[in-house]
Amino acid sequence: MTTLSLAVLDLAGTTVSDDGIVEDAFLHALSREGVHQGGPRHDAMMRYVRDTMGESKVSVFRHLFDGDEDTAQRANTAFEEAYAQMVASGRCSALPGARQAIESLRAHGCAVVLNTGFSPRTRDDLLASLGWSDLADAVLSPADAGRGRPYPDMVLTALLRTGAPSVDSVGVVGDTPYDMRAGRAAGAGLVAGVLTGGHSAQSLRAAGADQVLDSVAALPALIDATARAA
Questions:
Q1: Where are the alpha helices (DSSP H) in 108-152?
Q2: Does the pLDDT of residue 1 top 50, yes or no?
Q3: Is 197 in a helix, a strand, or coil?
Q4: Which end of the chain, N or C, is less surrounded by CB atoms within 10 Å?
Q5: Which positions, given as ranges, span the membrane (predicted)?
Q6: Does one domain contain both 104 and 26?
Q7: Residue 117 DSSP code
């Protein structure tokens, strides 16, 4: 493995604690479309939501509503509105050590790109609420890259945006199996899971994680150790 020159980091669950508001925003959107809690259809939909955390939200809605684009777009708009309101109410915060980890990586010559399954609007509202609008070298959503996770598009777009020399010099870090699958599909030199988002070490390793960290705060030390080994 070459020395890592780019870290591609997920937002919610990896660098940001969102107090469960992703699920709450999905609940709100489903309710707006007449799918209420307590029924088998609702339970099946929420299982799919949990299983696909990290994927583009509008893609999730397309699946939930059997490809009905109008319904998917309407539900996605309801999701974004609910999420923005919850962010504005202060329910999101940086995970301990996340900002310091990003600043440390950049100070030592490793570019950082934040990526997410949120739309650009939702992503930017979240970053603004944290004072993170200029924290990373770039920020990406599926709309910026073509496809969301588990496809490799956002990781490869991050490489092109930052001029990283090779996929082997890229590290991908996230809290969901979809993050791990995207990193593996991109050929990243390091794919690391974190345990701050509710998925187990076993599920992250099964999806392709090389390493599982307690939190993103441990990433600079891991990358430093990787550089020394290289």
A1: 120-130, 142-145
A2: no
A3: coil
A4: C
A5: none
A6: no
A7: S
Query: Are residue 64 and residue 108 in the same domain, yes or no?
Result: no
Q: For residue 134, give the DSSP letter.
A: T
d(CA 184, CA 213) in angstroms, rounded, equals 17
Could you tell me which of 51, 76, 50 has the C-alpha nearest to residue 61?
76
Which structure tokens are listed for 169? 């010099």
Cβ atoms of residues 44 and 148 within 8 Å: no
Helix, strand, coil percentages, rounded to 5, for the chain: 50, 15, 35
At 48, is the secondary structure helix, strand, or coil?
A: helix
pTM of the model: 0.88
Answer whether 14's CB lies under 8 Å from 149's CB.
no
Q: What are 191-216's pLDDT values in tens digits?
A: 999 999 989 999 999 999 999 999 99
CATH no. for residue 68? 1.10.150
**Cα 127 vs. chain centroid, distance in angstroms?**
13
Which of 198, 184, 207, 167 lies closest to 4 in space, CA to CA? 167
Does residue 2 surpass a pLDDT of 80?
no
